[in-house]
């Protein structure tokens, strides 16, 4: 079936092999980004702060928080650089990176073949996530196929646009997930499709979303990677062992727990075991 889950143990070797192969093919030349980071002692990272456990604004402190934010700060610490966070949107995040407005992207942008052809990336993924749809509890929609011909909201530049289009939905793409979810609550669509790590906690814990539920299985599960510009082999080579060590040490699993990310990613457990066995 199109949306059948692939067992994690079978997926990871294929996923890692494809990522490493593609990264190597696009990393043929040295880059200046790493030199710039070391010279100015500042790492500029594009992050998505539209809400959810991966990136948002803490209402108490008005400061950015989330797993992606913590990962950016940890990379800066290990590079000996101050971290400057730049808020991006799904519609402009790739352009911010290509135009040099940020050094890296850690912005809820999962790896796809198409993205891997226009951008560079750190070979080792730091997470794996798929999409789900928020629908009204009394909706007759129970399967992805039920969305065919229906108005569905998502974000511009989302990795779920292609599979949703293949399903034959009437797609409505917004600049941010917040706008998409607002459109759902305004009855402008029958479902809003975003990362499961955003939707699941929302419908489970938020009183304002008690009238909604999520559908499963996850749509288009894919690895989350740190994005660079094409050809930035030095930056990729510097960051890849850091990501591997964050897996080996359990830092990423602990960050997942700190940020109350559900469902927990089984890929993190498998990657930790892999790098502990390899001594990474």
Summarize the structure.
This protein is α/β, with parallel strands linked by helices.
Question: Can you give a write-up of this model?
Answer:
- This protein has 280 residues and is of the alpha/beta class.
- The protein has 2 domains: 8-126 and 225-278, D-Maltodextrin-Binding Protein, domain 2 (3-Layer(aba) Sandwich); 130-220, 3-Layer(aba) Sandwich (D-Maltodextrin-Binding Protein, domain 2).
- The chain has 11 helices and 13 strands.
- The strands form 4 sheets. Strands 7, 8, 9, 10, 11 and 12 form a 6-stranded mixed sheet that branches. A 3-stranded parallel sheet has the order 4-1-5.
- Strand 2 (56-57) and strand 3 (64-65) form a beta hairpin.
- Helix 9 (233-248) crosses helix 11 (266-278).
- Residues 1-6 and 24-30 have low confidence and may be disordered.
The description of the largest β-sheet is: 6 strands, mixed
CATH architecture of the largest domain: 3-Layer(aba) Sandwich
Kindly report the name of the CATH homologous superfamily of the largest domain: Periplasmic binding protein-like II
Overall residue-averaged pLDDT value: 89
The counted number of beta strands is 13
C-alpha termini separation: 36 Å
Could you estimate the helical fraction of the residues in percent? 40-55%
Rg, alpha carbons: 18 Å
Structural class: alpha/beta
Extract low-pLDDT stretches.
1-6, 24-30
* CATH fold group of the largest domain: D-Maltodextrin-Binding Protein, domain 2
Provide the succession of SSEs: HHEEEHEHEHEEEHEHEHEEEHHH
CATH class of the largest domain: Alpha Beta
How many structural domains are formed by the residues?
2
In percent terms, what proportion of residues is strand? 15-25%
| Structure annotation, total helices | 11
């Amino acid at each position: 079936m199109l949306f059948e889950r692939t067992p994690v143990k079978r997926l990871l070797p294929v996923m890692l092999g494809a990522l490493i192969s593609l990264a190597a093919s696009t990393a043929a030349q040295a880059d200046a980004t790493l030199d710039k980071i070391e010279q100015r002692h500042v790492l500029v990272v594009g992050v998505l702060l539209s809400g959810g456990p991966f990136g948002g604004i803490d209402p108490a402190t008005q400061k950015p928080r989330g797993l992606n934010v913590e990962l950016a700060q940890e990379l800066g610490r290990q590079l000996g650089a101050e971290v400057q966070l730049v808020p991006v949107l799904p519609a402009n995040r790739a352009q911010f990176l290509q135009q040099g407005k940020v050094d890296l992207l850690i912005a809820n942008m999962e790896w796809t073949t198409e993205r891997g052809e226009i951008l560079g990336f750190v070979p080792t993924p730091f997470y794996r996530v798929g999409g789900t749809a928020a629908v009204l509890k009394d909706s007759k929609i129970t399967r992805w196929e039920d969305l065919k011909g229906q108005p569905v909201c998502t974000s511009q530049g989302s990795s779920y646009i292609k599979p949703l289009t293949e399903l034959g939905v009437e797609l409505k793409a917004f600049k941010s997930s917040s706008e998409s979810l607002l459109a759902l609550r305004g009855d402008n669509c029958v479902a809003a499709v975003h990362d499961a790590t955003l939707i699941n906690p929302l419908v489970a814990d938020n009183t304002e979303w008690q009238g909604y539920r999520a559908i499963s299985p996850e749509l288009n599960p894919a690895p989350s990677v740190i994005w660079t510009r094409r050809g930035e082999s030095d930056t990729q080579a510097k960051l890849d062992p850091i990501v591997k060590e964050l897996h080996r040490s359990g830092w990423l699993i602990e960050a997942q727990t700190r940020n109350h990310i559900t469902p927990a990613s089984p890929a993190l457990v498998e990657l930790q075991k892999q790098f502990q066995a390899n001594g990474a």
